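Q: What changes when 6-O-phosphono-beta-D-fructofuranose is included in the input?
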Amino acid sequence: MTSGGDAQGMNAAVRAIVRAGIHAGVEVFAVQEGWQGAIEGGEQIVQLNWSDVSGILPKGGTMIGTARSPEFRTREGQLTAVENLIERGIDRLIVIGGDGSLSGSRELCLAWPGLVQELVAAGRLTPEAAAAHPRVAIVGLVGSIDNDMVGTDMTIGTDSALHRITDAIDAISSTAESHRRTFIVEVMGRRCGYLALMSAIAGGADYTFLPESPPRDGWEDRMVDVLGRGRAAGRRDSVIVVAEGAADRDGEPITAERVQQVLLDRTGEEARITILGHVQRGGTPSAYDRWMATACGVEAVHQVLDAGETDEPMLVGMRRDHVVSVPLLQAVEDTHRVADYIAEGDFDAAIEARGVGFTTMVDIYRVLSEATPTVTAVAPARRVAIMHAGALAPGMNQLARVAVRSGLDRGFEMVAVQGGVPGLVEGALREVGWSDVEGMANTGGADFGTRRYVPTEAELYQMARSLEDHRIDALLVMGGFHAYATVDLMERERKRYTAFSIPIAVLPASIDNNLPGWPMSVGSDTALNTVVDAIDMVRMSASASKRAFVVETMGRGCGFLPLMGAIAGGAEKAYLPETGISLEQLTADVAALVDSFESGRSFYLTVMGEDASEHYTGEVIARLFEAEGRGLYSVRQAVIGHMQQGGVPSPFDRINATRLAYLAIANLDGQLASGTSNIVAASSSAEGMFGPWRVVTEDMDWEAQRPLDEWWMRLRPVFAQLSRRPGQE
Ligand SMILES: Nc1ncnc2c1ncn2[C@@H]1O[C@H](COP(=O)(O)OP(=O)(O)OP(=O)(O)O)[C@@H](O)[C@H]1O
Ligand SMILES: O=P(O)(O)OC[C@H]1O[C@](O)(CO)[C@@H](O)[C@@H]1O
Ligand SMILES: [Mg+2]
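A: The predicted holo structure follows.
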């Protein structure tokens, strides 16, 4: 069942549940139109088969319909729903919905035995039927753009909604800049400020109002001051993001109109208002919402089938890169507690209850949205250099922007290395100020330059000289494999070159997602979205004919892009560099391919990594497929290519970059203050998110240029279940 407001990615969950259910050997039914459908019964409860969920992955909304059902809140509504479910022999239920729908599920779970008794007493249910279904097993998946559920880091739909919002803010910024205007953008989220906060960060907005953190009295003057200073520092536009549930400390709503009036009264400027509304809930799901909903859907099936008589209902969600399950009751109660804190005016507790990620981002936003540094560098200020290294990754500009601004805000002089490692060798360093990084929040590319280059022995000496000449006290390196390889050399040569004995922080930025310590390197989410967009287009291009496609992604020795692209794009087959390609496997795959066209398929999609095999290249595989089809279908190859490195960074990459760069500078600051000179790298398991170099890089396979432990390889069984019917090899 899907219930509550629809959310992009609900279809991915439905598809995964149906197919994983079929693999588990059970019959899967859809309760259409949410709880309302359970009350209506009859044709609202329908069985779904394998092919019923074909082709729904790229579609927004939910194919089984959703609703908000006031009737379900009543005893009679719940009685009828239980009656209808038991009539179909259904006592295991996966509900995909928001906090409301899951609260309702929990209520039903608690009330079920009583409801069953009442139905028997009223003669609406036979004692035998009641005895066969004494309890209901419920598993919840959170489908809501609001991301307002405690117990999961992300809810299905939130990432897609952020895509819609950041696209809109990017578009508004350009017209605002042209007219030197202020725009007030209202975003959804009910009583949760997640969408507003993250879109303000991703869009580089100047000011934001969140329900969890109502502004202190006098906010009107502060807002006008911040905007005014921004303009004085050269900004041509101002963007204010208002969450629909924002209010002041007296609980008086802060609406877009109210903000507009404040600006008119105090500055005479007539700001424009854009209310994004339901656009945020529409459109194709992002890559994240597709793979995340898919992975959670498969897990939900296992949970609901394994649930024993007395087991409590569970919620399946995400904790970092892990699919996790937590007791639904606890999650619902914790979620309601946030609302209570807000109602009681305990805003610190409200923010804290949203989780550490939210709290950190609120702090970071406060620094970044300032128009100028809050402190002035006092001579002799510490000098911190930043450098990109390796291939270009979308989000590098955001990294540079956040590093520069948070460094300046801590009183450092910030120095940018121009052109990556060769720039450091040549001594191409320049000081950068607050406004030098203006507008870099949402652009692709790397304005300070980057190169795929590892220094030679002699160049290490020159690098050390550059660091000394420019009196660099600490260094932040942001990039891919070459960044890590360069710093590894520097670490080994620290005895020889004392200039390297400064605090150094390294963070991952690469579309390949092939670096240890951090689950998603900056740029990899953007590239994955590009892959998925390309697959969607390829699929459409083939819709009028019988065709097999072989799509090739980048990623070098790392299979992240091909596997995740295959899961999110709904492919039939994926070839990864980790596992290679054998003739034996190809033979089996060709047989499966021919068989599927013979049994009526009209499209077959294979996704492969560029380095999956030295010999069986995309072209070879495409020819092989063509030859064996004997005219039954045609085969085309699509190499996605450098589009994957280009592109405007996705909201996730902008947010990920913001957190990483901020925490890296915080680490360097801490080291400079305490007098240590450690080399650290981003590490999701370390305190402060940066851990010792040697420890983090223990997980690096330098030869294969990828981590030894790749978390997403755990999703291979998920992919295997969804891409092939049981019995198909
Ligand atoms: N306490 C409750 N008891 C019984 N049913 C409930 C309860 N709360 C919500 N529901 C049911 O869940 C439905 C959806 O709830 P709601 O409108 O809050 O949306 P949601 O699931 O939170 O999704 P979203 O917020 O993303 O739109 C309600 O219309 C109602 O049928
Ligand atoms: O679609 P409706 O019923 O107008 O509800 C809008 C609400 O639903 C959501 O989109 C999802 O909960 C909220 O952000 C918004 O407040
Ligand atoms: Mg809700």
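Observations recorded in class: DSSP finds 24 helices and 23 strands in the chain.
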